[in-house]
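Journal club side-thread
Mid-discussion, someone asked how the predicted structure for our own chain would compare to the paper's figures. Pasting it here so we can look after the session.
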Amino acid sequence: MAIVTQARPEVISHWPPPAYVGAMIKRHIHLTAAALLLCLSGVADARTTAQEDVLDGQLLPGWQMKSGAHMAAIQLDLAPGWKTYWRAPGDAGIPPQFDWSASENLKSVRMHWPAPTVFHTNGFLTIGYTDGLVLPVEVEPIDPSRPVTLRATVDLGICHDICMPAFLDLSADIIAPGAPDQAIRAALKAQPITAKDAGVGNVSCTVDPITDGLRITASITLPQQPGEETVAFETTDPRVWVAESTATRTGKTLVAVTEMVGPTGAPFALDRSGVRMTVISDRGAVEIQGCPAP
């Protein structure tokens, strides 16, 4: 897999943070010679692959809900076999970034991510979607009586045998009442289920300092999920790099361990209530918010 490092200057300026780079180097020093050769062999192919040949995107205007907010969506169409990444893309994925600042009459945006898929490539775990994605976007207007002009710039990574950064500039007029959209409804239905609905019992986390951050050991009482269970950790601070977790199970107890590196490259204070854990399996995903002390 080749990773093409070309990107827009404003993206490079704030991502990745220095601690992230250091962590990536430390975690990935075990790359094999075969994987490096594969990376190098893909660079030429990446230079001859145009974004428009493998990616198309649009904003779906959706409909107005009873609350006065609108349910719209970003639709990404990828060429067969291509993939893009979830909000927490895994140890070697490319995190998507969204900028809504050019929109008009927009108060807030909330994204409703469908459950993703876990990929294992060249010894790396990544998390995302193949062939395409409909990402529901809950749009709250400043003035509900007026239309919203929704404008989004999207920076994302797309991969097949090669990986390349991509950029989309999308816009749509969101006008009430709109109309139901089956693609958006299906994506909403595909969201991770809640801890309560999944039958999650006790949840606790042990937090231990390490040289450059923290080690988190989460214990989750959860019925066995079908197939392989992958636990993705997130925090409220986007500057914190989170390593791929290891998960083991004993009966109804799932134990997941990860490491986190903050922007200072040293142990830091963790907001336990802001820790989000998503258990991804063949059935879909379970989302668990908060990880209190034992």
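Post-session note: Residues 1-44 have pLDDT under 50 and may be disordered.
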